[in-house]
Every structure is written in C-alpha cells, then in structure tokens.
Amino acid sequence: MHLDSSTEGVVAYEDTSECSVNGKSPSPSPSFQQINSRKGLRRILPQLGPAFVAAIAYVDPGNFATNIAGGAKFGYLLVWVVVVANLIGMFVQNMSAKLGLVTGQNLPQQCRKHLPRPASYMLWLLAELVAMATDLAEFIGASIALNLLFGVPLFVGGLMTGVISFAILALQQRGYRWFELTIGGMLGLILLGFLYDALQISQDWGAVSRGFVPSFKGSESVLLACGILGATVMPHVIYLHSALTQDRISTANLEERRRVHRFLKIDVFIAMTIAGVVNLLMLIIAASLFHKSGITNVESLKGAHAGFEQLLGGGAAFAFAGALLASGLASSSVGTYAGQVIMQGFIARSIPLVVRRLVTMAPALIVLAIGLDPSRSLIISQVVLSFGIPFALIPLVWLTSKQSVMGSFANQLGTKVVGVILASAIVSLNVFLLYVTFAKGV
Length: 442
Description:
- It is a single chain.
- With 442 residues, the chain is an all-alpha fold.
- It has 19 helices and no strands.
- The termini are far apart.
- Residues 1-19 have low confidence and may be disordered.
C-alpha cells in the first residue's frame, strides 16, 4: 500500500500484491530513505535496473533477424529506422516506468480501472496475441543458437529454452536484484558479442552517416522497417516496465517520488542507449559484411552465422551465436514475466506459469516441429508486434496525461503531442504496409 502524503498531486494507491508473478506476495520494498542514506554506488545502483530488464526485449532474436536482413539487403538505408525506433523506445519506456512509480499500479491494472470492461478485455486479447508473437521470436532465436553452438535439434532446443527461461525467472524468489542483474549481464554479453564482430570489420562511416537520412526503397524495405519497429518497440514490455517500478522503492512524499523518477529516467537512458548501440551494430555489421560483399539475401540466422564464419572466421561466428543465445534465453524469461503481468492486470486472473508458458510457446514449437522457415517466421512475428504497439501506446499516453491518475506527474502538452504523433505514425506505417503488401500483391 502506497500513500502520497504531499499536498501537491495527491494520489492514493491500491494494494498491488495481486501483481506477484509467482503467486506469492512480493517482499517489502526498500524505502527511499533507506537507499538514500547510503554512500556512493551503494546509493545509486539500487535505483537502477528495471530498464535493463525492459531493454532486453529491444535486443531479442527478432532484432537479430530484422536488422541483419535489413542491413544485408539494403545496406545502410534503414539506419535511421533503428535510431528512430530506439528514441521511441526511450520515450515510451520512460512513460511506462513513471506510471508504475506514481500510481503504484501497472499499465494493465490502470486500463482495467479506467476503461470499460469490453475495452479492457479487447486489449487483453490483443496483448495475448502479441505475447505469442513475442515467444515465437524468442524461442526460435534461442533454438537456432543452441543448434549452431551445440548441434541441438531445433524442437529440442525450443523445449530447453522453456526450461531455462523458468530457471532465470525463478531468481526473483531470491529478490528482484538477482533477476535484474542476470538479465543485465546477458545484455552485456550481447553487446560484447557484437562489439567483437564490429572490430573485425572496417566501416565506411560516410555511408553510415547517409543512412541517417529517412528513405525507403520499395515495399520490402517498408516491411523490414515495420519489422525493425516491431522488434524494437515491443508492446509487451510497455506493459511490463510499469510493473517493474510499481512497488520497487517505497516513497513517503512527492519530493521522494520526484527523486526516484529522476533515477528512473537515467536508468532508461543508459539501458536504452546500450540497446540502441547493439541494434545499430547489428545493421551496420550486416551492411558492411554482407551487402558490400554482394550477399544481399541473408534472411536466415543460420545463413548469417555461416557468413560470419566464412568471411570473418570461427571466433566471429561464435560471438554471434553466443549473443543470439543470451538474447533468446533472457528475452524468453522476460516475456513470461510480462505475460503474467498482462493477465493479472487486465482481467485480475492468474494461471500457473507452466500452463501459460506452454500456451504461448505452442506456436513457436509448431513452427519448429513442422519445419517452416524459422527466420522468415521470426521476421513476420515482428511485423505482428508492430501492429500491436498502438494498442499499448495509446492507453499509456492517455493515462499518463490524466491529472486524476498522475497528479503533478501528468504529461505536459509537448509530451502529449509527441505521444499522439508517434501513435499516429505507427498506425499510418502499418496501414501503408497492408496496402503495398495486399492491394499491390507484393
């Protein structure tokens, strides 16, 4: 139970114990006074972490597929899409983190509280479809990585991914810091893997800089742009970030909440900058290595791994596969966490994690079992995620703009305008994609 005792922006908070992912009541949150009484890094570091959990979804296997395919096929053309997607991610995740901190509830809970019941159920169903598309990318990516590194069959790799994701999520029983540190460590491994590969390649920075100018080249580039956007701004993590901050640090008044919010913004900036660098490295490496070599149809993660091995050697291929494995395993556990938050928040119901995991991983296991092209399926899943973004973003902008919900933390006019523009742009891009794909038969 949170209570703001300040006179400005008074907001009463409901009990949030129902948000426990593992079905147990969350352990008592440390108070701001306790953390602020410490010195040096012991005061700073405990206030960082939620954004690193959210950021892992911004470098999941879907990003590998779309960024590498985009760089190989179009060179540096879509660099600007990666940059814009990451800036959107920073904007969105900051709002989500703020909502959880200020209201003491997550975004799905707030939607259930302020929206008509039919609308809340509709958003829940859409969020569940998004969760399945998310699992498709995560399981396929981790399975491919296990196959590349250890020769594990893809279907068996999918089952192993489910088991390992449970083990990672179980770290929460020892406290949220264990989970955050594990996910943050995996984000670091992904970054190191791509830094290693980038150092093996000479870059044409003039050509890279021209990629910052917005442009497209045919409907396929629009499809990949939607995929990059969907793979970067993940709808399920928009919901999740608010849950990560809703009862993490207890505050007694408005000033304490403002100071915690400042650290949340720093947390988002650092974590999302790392994720943005990783995404840029993916695309730039693919453009420099594959596109310049005339290998423009690298639409398979296995093909990308083979290209790394052929053109750069076994060390680069190992770094790529290791980064892919860390991405798939970490993002899978984060996806499970997000799925529970979504269900408990929207419909105030919970099912055992094993059942939920089996349901959402079923499409991925089917793809692996019947032999569909996993990389193409992975890219299409990211387009599905792109279509799901407005249904998470629009309620987030609306709720964080209401003074009755946020008090003095409500969005200012400029933030409201940017939020509306972003949601409109994403909807327009998706409508255009439907037109060029179906109306023209491309």
